[in-house]
Amino acid sequence: MCGIVGYIGYEQAAPFLLSGLERLEYRGYDSAGICLNDGGELVVKKSKGKLVELKALTQNGTNIHGTVGIGHTRWATHGEPSDVNAHPHLSDSCRFAVVHNGIIENYLQLKEYLISKGVKFRSQTDTEVIAQLIEYYYQGDLVDTIIKVLSKLDGSYALGVISKDAPDEIIAVRKESPLIIGLGENENYIASDVPAILSKTRRIYRLQNNEIAILKRDSIKIINTDKEEIAKTVETVEWDLDAAEKGGYEHFMFKEIMEQPKAIRQTVARHIKNGRVVLDEIRLTPEQLKSYNKINILACGSAYHVGVVAKYVFEKTLRIPVEADLASEFRYRDPIVDDKTLTIVISQSGETADTKEAMKEAQRRGSHVIAIVNVVGSAIAEESDDVIYTLAGPEIAVATTKAYSTQLAVIYLMALHFGEMLGTIGKAEYDNYITELEALPDKISQILESEEKIQYLASKLFNSRDVFFIGRNIDYALSLEGSLKLKEISYIHSEAYAAGELKHGTISLIEDGTLVIALATHEALIAKTVSNIEEVRTRGAYVLCLACEDHQEIKNVAQSTIFIPKTCDMMLPSLAVVPLQLFAYYVASLKGCDIDKPRNLAKSVTVE
Ligand code: G6P
After folding, report:
1. Cis peptide leading into 88, omega within 30 of 0?
2. Are 550 and 557 in contact, with CB atoms under 8 Å apart?
3. CA-CA-CA-CA torsion sign (417, 421, 425, 431)
4. pTM
5. How many Cβ atoms from other residues are within 10 Å of residue 594's Cβ?
6. 376: exposed, middle or buried (Cβ count in 10 Å: 0-12, 13-18, 19+)
7. How far apart are the C-alpha atoms of 462 and 155, rounded to whole Å?
């Protein structure tokens, strides 16, 4: 969602601010703006729409001057997307400028109070309240004022503040929303996310809640709200700039699909030593593990779909009941969770508001939380009891691919780890799982090599109006993700259905030419799925079936087929998802959609 970048140094700030904002575009936004201190005046340029608009307005950053500045991409929450609601926001007399990620929950009361004192507002945003409060309370010391203002705010925020009166300073604050400080030579930076500053530095501080950073050109001081200085450790970001760039590919999504073998290999290799899974991150004793009578999985979007796969995997290998829950539902339904429930939270960004709050709800009820997260140091990673990182590297395309795949890999690692601790997986079975897990990257590469076939199928089918994905068992779990991938980037209506459930409703929607994508990788249930394929074919459906390569007979029941290599049942989704990602990608490409930034979607959903 919203993105923040800031610069203080000796160069012109605007070109860097614009390029930093460009690297945050993937988060999703609908307006953008920058503010620079130009010789003691705060000059703001902002515009509704994509960054190209802001670039045109600023002539690529050449008609706005200053060596200190802040920038923002906004995803509208309070107030429509518009020039006036875009950040940065100025105080009434243009003395202070603020960029903000997060939500100020009590902004209406604060706004009413300020209006009663004669303050004039320009926008409908919650953020403007912060700029106005700073001016209202200002008595000559910006840091003191900001500390006072923070005490008035309820909600979440990452803030960048500049002032006319302190032209050589940026103040940055964080509560709940992420913010990092980049360390340069004679220049320093702020950003909501690492890619924004990777072109300049890999040395960062991560601000923690209620920390305030005072950035000057050659120094950074971090204090708490009692003005006590905090000693921070410099962290070196492992991601390099190449990882956050397209590297010759037309879209990040395609690049990230292609990166899956490497991402899975890294994630698996980190946790297998001498043929055994090592998950030191999980600090549960066998006794604790045995005391659980339920596993509870909380996530949103594709991460939730990983949770649905995990339900099948864990129940089969651990014989513990598993509930996979949408975080946004779990939070508000008085869930039955206690210290006998193990909670697993899955999130690429580690910032998804609903997932984070659901995690806290589970913790409040006494449950131990293990988080599977991609972004190091994110809120969920920090606040969970144990964290396992997926080593997917930065994922830029809004539609997740490599993060989903690495999350699945962690689920298999956990199944083996817990299965060994509980004694529910025999030795031969365990060894076979390890072999299959280590073989996944090569098998995925094999699928990627035959992507022309998927491109061809997409060219035949991209005009479909409705698509139904069907499957049983783990194929059903996968159909959820296949369907989501297609609809989110190609805007084709699609639904995922448990194949056995079709005849209880959905089959009435099948008519001549309706595309049904049947997933039939799960060997034990192939015959059942074939019956469901027959049912839809006799009603006119066009069936594209995905099966394992040793089931060539599927060619006789479906009009088109895609074959994948064989692996053990529980790891089939890792292979089968790849053709589905490619299919969605090519369909969206043929339809001319904005693949990396689909309409209305955001990568990191930091509002409820
Ligand atoms: C957004 C993204 C999805 C993602 C979901 C959960 O909706 O577009 O791709 O699966 O958020 O995000 P998380 O960062 O928690 O995995």
Report:
1. yes
2. no
3. positive
4. 0.80
5. 13
6. middle
7. 44
Residue 603 bears catalytic tag? yes
pLDDT digits (tens, 9 = 90+) for 15-57: 999 999 998 887 778 899 999 999 889 999 999 999 999 999 9
Nearest CA to ligand 1 atom 7: 301
Structural domains present in the chain:
3-244 (3.60.20.10), 248-447 (3.40.50.10490), 450-592 (3.40.50.10490)
Q: Which alpha helices (H) appear in 29-175, and where do they start and end?
A: 51-57, 107-116, 127-137, 142-152
Work out the angle between the directed axes of helices 572-590 and 474-490 (0-180°, nearest 10): 20
* Contact (CB, 8 A) for 490 and 598: no
Centroid of ligand 1 to alpha carbon of 304 (angstroms): 9
In single-letter form, the type of residue at position 140 comes to G
DSSP letter at 121? Answer: P
CB 293 within 8 A of CB 340: yes
Tens of pLDDT, residues 345-395: 999 999 999 999 999 999 999 999 999 999 888 889 989 999 999 989 889
Q: Which of 352, 372, 411 to mutate to test the pocket of ligand 1 (most atoms within 8 A of CB)?
A: 352
